[in-house]
## 1
Amino acid sequence: MFKKVLIANRGEIALRIIRACRELGVQTVAVYSEADRESLHVRFADDDVCIGPAPARDSYLKIPRLIAAAEITGADAIHPGYGFLAENAEFAEIVTASNLAFIGPTAEQIRVMGDKAAARKAMTAVGVPIVPGTPGPVEDVDEALDFAKRMGFPVIIKAAAGGGGKGMRVAKDADDFARSFQLARSEALSAFGNGDVYVEKYLMRPRHIEFQIMGDKFGNVIHLGERDCSVQRRHQKLIEESPSPAMTPDLRKRMGDAAVAGAKAIEYVGAGTIEMLLDEDGSFYFMEMNTRIQVEHPVTEMITGIDLVKEQIRVAAGERLSVLEMPPLRGHVIECRVNAEDPNRNFQPSPGKIHTFHPPGGNGVRLDTHVYAGYTVPPFYDSMIAKVICQGRDRPEALAKMRLALETFIIEGPMTTIPFLARVMQNPRFQSGDVDTKFLEREPDLMKEPG
Ligand code: MV4
């Protein structure tokens, strides 16, 4: 096992990783920017190093400073968390070349999955379904239009280097196509420095369903069930749950087998997520693989009872997976992300000092947060300040518990998404499980304060 792990992150995930390390008897090193001096991850770690000014590009993204911090504190491994450098292949390479363990997959695995065309190719090779589309990037608009006509409209044009919805354009018909194609190309070029795009059949109302994967260095790969993350706004997930309301044992078997085959194809090591789209007709398609621990990992931890962060650390240290198949799923789990944002002002960030803080609690309620009364939410980073995770015997019980948890969660100071999330728990469509990636567009009233 490692002696000392440096956590190249901040906020709730830094606290989550410190907790896992402590349970394993591993020492920790926190790194922090000048804006995070008062943060709990600094207080809870055994060692801490200031790595620069507030903007992430001058601190949390500065690779040489992170490596230097690991060297001066005697760390033997780095955990990247999520965001920042978690899916940066070059970072993984430099960490390893510096004789430190990278707690995550190999640089090559990160690279393949970060290249959408390469990922699609790898999945297709092992029989994982991908959305019908061009096999690779299409160079000219006429070739692309030809393909779209054969496929049938609507189609979606996606950046090969993309993710998160950037460089993505839907074309309703042939007239619309040339403009959408050029827009996607130029957006891809400016966002990723690579203007390659490909064309796919556009699914009108897909659900976003992702499978949690764990692999070890002995070639074992398992999945730990799915999470339904269909409630999103501008490609930001707001609510995640497991099991998916759309899941059946047969569908889970087929989607889970595909997810495991995909991860095995690249001999995946560590925690990863296979994101899929589930169409209204029951067809499912590989979308992308995230090669990191995700924000919503507690949903899987609660439904399976497995500590994913401890498992990540053990596997990186060369241990075997502690389970070799999916344990029985325990009831229903739902997670709400609480952001310091004002839903009445188009979810505009609302940083500032928290005057009052009262956490929710009770049986089956988990709160992952780094904030406290007196803490000031800085304006420089992600606006997520807490995750509430609730477990019930079934979905209605989990939803009822979540509503109560949100209604008794007091944060005064910044505006938060808590009242908005409590309204979603009472929405009939949400309660019936009728969610897809256009849920909020079809329920715009949820974004407004009643009265
Ligand atoms: C799609 C799609 C419909 N059809 N692909 C959005 C993020 C990117 N990684 C893939 N995305 C989508 N790809 C086809 N062929 C709809 C989306 C999509 C979406 C997917 C998951 C969750 C939320 C979404 C919101 C809008 C669009």
## 2
Amino acid sequence: MNFRETLLITGGAGFIGSHTVRRFLRNPQTRVVNVDALTYAGNLENLVDVAHAPNYVFERVDITDAAAVARLFDQYRPDGVVHLAAESHVDRSIADPMAFVRTNVIGTVTLLNAAVAAWKADGFAGKRFYHISTDEVFGALCAEGFFTETTSYSPNSPYSASKAASDHFVRAYHETYGLPVVLSNCSNNYGSHHFPEKLIPLMIHNIVEKKPLPIYGDGQYTRDWLFVEDHATAIETVYRSGAPGETYCIGGWNEWTNLDLVHLLCAVMDEKLGRAAGESAQLITFVKDRPGHDKRYAIDASKIERELGWKPSVTFEEGLARTVDWYLNNPEWLANVTSGAYQQYYEKQYLP
Ligand code: NAD
Ligand code: DAU
């Protein structure tokens, strides 16, 4: 079959990656090669609905494996890379920083090297390397102000330091080799298929199970929440229309303290589960704070709206209701993740 373009999407079996893969697959002329090592965070069940699409290919490849990455460029001759693969959880980065250096820094540079080697003969004509990054590279805000594309980098966790390093390498490859790159730095995502180590899916899981809801410190830390499907449309927009060498901040204009957010989630779920109002909130438990915990993140997303015409489309009320409904309607997804059964999906689906 002839396709108009081929994209390597890294980390496509993860949370945001699976929504991004699905987004690009909507165009039958786009062939998507999902490149994922299937770490604990990679789950092919996230993509069961598209696994047999004619324009979808899965490649189990570790992005730090230079030979395997070079083989992908040789075999698929991609027009672009949409790079999401990463170690993504701050708490894990505190326990094991080197895993974050390995994938987020070395893996990104391995991809950059392969792109330059494969594409430079044609002078990079029609090519694009898009790095999906995080607002955490900017550090922490106090009560006022927003992160913008010109905010200086000040990462505080090993995770954000590794993402900052990878951003710098991507930008440096643009300046040094002329690689046509684009970057975006996004705020906290929420939605379906989110691994239950992160705040919102962990709380949903624990509310269902009537387990304690651990709030770090006093719970007065603020995050700016964006529905993951809105992030996927933003990624498609930046990939298609972002200017080479540019960065775009992506956010939801939607700030919540952790404590207020968990109270809201408890109220939404009490109603959906037919529990008495206030019942789930009794599970809230204050626990030891995260070291180096950033006080507040908030994105000024006006550049992407002004220049590329993207803005969030899903209200928090709607997005949270859709998220809770998805988890309540898909208990087997959560059960497979918590039991570890999801890790056998690759063998079942792809091995003889
Ligand atoms: P995730 O942890 O859910 O998924 C990461 C994916 O990368 C997994 O499928 C995993 O198997 C894969 N992966 C990890 N190491 C790999 C390696 N060495 N080689 C190949 N694949 C590997 O992450 P997510 O939350 O979907 O985040 C995706 C990207 O978006 C990350 O780069 C993250 O920094 C960024 N981001 C996330 C958020 C958020 O709120 N989750 C916000 C802004 C930016
Ligand atoms: O801002 C973008 C970032 O958002 C992404 O780059 C990261 O990949 C993503 O994991 C997320 O990072 P956070 O550290 O903000 O997300 P997390 O869900 O781990 O925590 C959200 C907030 O909730 C944070 O202030 C810590 C707090 N928290 C988290 C957990 C897991 C709790 O209070 N209790 C918890 O059990």
## 3
Amino acid sequence: MSSRFSDLVEEARLSLQALADYGDQFFHPAVRLGVTGLSRSGKTVFITALVHAMLRGGRLPVFEAASGRIAKARLSPQPDDAVPRFAYEDHIRTLVEARQWPHSTTDISELRLVIDYQRASGADRSLTLDIVDYPGEWLLDLPLLHKSYEEWSAESLMLSRKAPRAELAAPWHGLLATLDPLAAADEQAARASAKLFTDYLRACRDERFAMSMLPPGRFLMPGSLAGSPALTFAPLELSGAGDAPAGSLWEMMRRRFEAYKDVVVRPFFRDHFARLDRQIVLVDALAAFNAGPEALADLQAALAGILDCFRVGRGTFFSALLRPRIDRILFAATKADHLHHASHDPLEAILRRMVEGAAKRAEFAGAAVDVAALAAVRATREARVRRGGDDLPSIIGTPAAGESAHGEFFDGETDVATFPGDLPMAPDSLFDPAAPAQAQFRGLSHGAAGDADFRFLRFRPPRAPAAGIDAPLPHIRLDRALQFLIGDRLR
Ligand code: GDP
């Protein structure tokens, strides 16, 4: 099928679906909320905490409807039979009873929450909230839809020659230099280069480098497609002249790249992304600060790429009929409980700076964009600790059992106070590779104040409250996120 024709078929399917959804919306008000973010950004913890707060009446002062107008929230069977259900019950038990963090997102899942509430006018109503959890890596694949194999190859190669990627890409570059794109297609060559290319992507994701721009997303999260031809390709060094000869390695790689779009990217766009109304993008900004300015620049590029996805369909990819419906996007820096509250506003300012340019483009396309610093589950409390004559704003939590980056041993039970470091009020220094480390971010320095250690302690979830699993969990600014995402739909 030509790509133009398949786009038309896609459009027709999508508009039928949009019409059906619209009719249904009239009788049963509903919001489809997408929750995404790169691996380990905090999606599973966020959804678990959100659902728990709604079911158990968490403390949510900024979420207007929660102050008296929500009668009851309940779980209900989800509408999509082919999508796994988000394992809320397992996750909350793991969090509260085992005091462990739940297993992270590796695939799409969904959960339906029905909220019975009283309208501001007094009438009783229900809002159906469908929460769709999916890996942010899938979102970063959407720009591939507009790219040819040759364009993607050139871009990926260019990126892989920059620091700190170049060093990590050396083994793959070594193999690449021996491959002739014009030579006959060779399965072993394709497999070997796909493997080394994937190893390079995986190394970039490592917490020391914390790179974010790593498409194709399924290379790191293959699921059931592991080993299939649609995942067995890699960029090639192409001279730019001419076209791929029939039967060449180049042609084979190009066919597989197109297959990846057909089998992975288009179905995700059609079945999931195009049906969302609201979106929260979770960002582990602290991990990027810890890895340094290159990681931050990379994260910034990834966030811009993500924001541009929300414009897909607005005159570019599909016709105006099929605009993705998303009209609100929240970028949230997670795990803010790793910082003292004095750093929460600076954290938001940094995130705002990172999405500024791209946010303007999204706003222009009709979506409101906001940022927040939050902790879906607050694992720490605050204290002032005197050290060497200084009175330091510190946080206290229970580090997970094991050895820290400092070589200290934690038993997993004893609380430890740490000075988390301050975020600079002026975010610019964080983005400047030439700025001294102290001006960038004094990471969680467990020990002497200010000794720049760019490793975080991993805290265990908070101790279970006396009321057990039914009690609300502590959080930071979860209510603000809820107010932005669904507050207007509960009026
Ligand atoms: P996912 O891959 O996006 O689903 O990420 P998870 O929700 O599984 O979170 C990854 C890890 O980040 C967890 O195992 C926790 O260690 C940590 N984390 C996530 N949310 C929070 C939070 O609100 N507070 C703290 N302290 N840690 C968090």
